[in-house]
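Researcher: Next entry in the queue.
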Amino acid sequence: MADPKGFMTTPRQEWPRRPVEERVRDWHEVYAPGGLLPIIGKQANRCMNCGVPFCHQACPLGNLIPDWNDLVSLGDWRAASDRLHATNNFPEFTGRLCPAPCEAGCVLAINQPAVTIKNVECAIADRAWEEGFLPPQPPDRLSGRSVAVIGSGPTGLAAAQQLTRAGHTVVVYEKDDRLGGLMRYGIPEFKMEKHHLERRLEQMRAEGTKFRTSVVVGRDAGAAELRARHDALVIATGATAWRELPVPGRELSGIHQAMEYLPAANRVCEGDFEDSPLSAAGRHVVIIGGGDTGADCLGTVIRQGAASVTQLDIYPQPGTERDDDTEPWPTYPKIYRLSAAHEEADALRTAPAADADARLFAASTFRFTGDAEGRVREVHLMEVDAQRRPLPGTERTLPADLVLLALGFSGPSQEDGLIAQLGLELTPRGTIARDRAFATNVPGVFAAGDAARGQSLIVWAIAEGRAVAAAVDHYLTGAPSRLPSPISPDDRPMRV
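Model: Structure for this entry, 496 residues:
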């Protein structure tokens, strides 16, 4: 460690965000351009270079966090980039989109604010691109084996890059017209501008990875035919089967799934539409669901100029400090966090009746009512207790002419026929069953990411992609793979 007293003399300072009034008028990232580099060296210096760095255990990628913190504090950006990319294919994605379980596991977080690991990671990744530290890495020789990867989200891309660099011929099939999966059409531009994605895709093309867009495997291309054409097949389609809200009035128009709403807004940023066909402009919006997808909807609704927006969270409002009895360090605690979108909603007072920022906590929707034309007009809700049981006498209504359901996902979609055509076995949760080598019941077919693990974080998705690549490489060569395998299918986040 460059300064053994850095954590005692330097307070935590995060990447500053642009003023709310400025950033809600555009779709650029919320962070102040150039605001990270002036502070990041001292922030990296807060790392204590612990003898037992629990940040390693908290991160499924096993990122060498103390190593690259030390190198950043010393100004050695190339070496820091080498350490970072040794374990993470896409740190510019995780540095913007990951909720940073590594910071919850930081030893400093036992009694002080954690090291800003996520900000350091993002600074290294961006500096690496600026300085030209990331040239394509095509393989020295080809193996003569080919792999089809279905899905171009973070799992599919990580698996494809690892397998391409190992010498296999990889073709990625994507159902949408552009690559990236949820990073393309689910993540709003203000959280990650898509030029970061395009830059990495260009690197992968230069390395030899091939991409096929607008191909729904199971419909446009037969799954069994694809399996016969390649030596191995990796299913990384994600968990796209969204959860429903089966309450009276659900059939009213104006009630949409979050993943119907967000892609339309992202397509405006891509230039496909001048205005979103599901715009919130001038409308009273209610978002049902308190997770990250709900927050993504919130920031999007604000930028579209809604008349009001309220977000409903069925869980009680968490405290601002970790509960050491129920969620002890180094687990990732459920605490009150203020995302950029919630900060915007609070500053603009989008929901005056909310408990905090735009959120109503411990709130459960039990019906919708509409007008004579069948359009939604009100959301009826009740307070619930800690077991999510309705509390009599707490009924209330919110005006709503646009309702967004952000209730999460239950597993991979089966509408395209991929699972049925291959005869894949499923778990009781509806995810694709696999063994400890990521292999399904069909020889040569592997499953990774949310399609098999269930809905999870981007850092777990990349870890799954790297691990399944090692498993496929071993299957194709018959020899122990030299590719890293950071996790097993049974690994789970640290919890009590």
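Model: Residues 120 and 272 are 34 Å apart (CA to CA).
Researcher: Noted, moving on.
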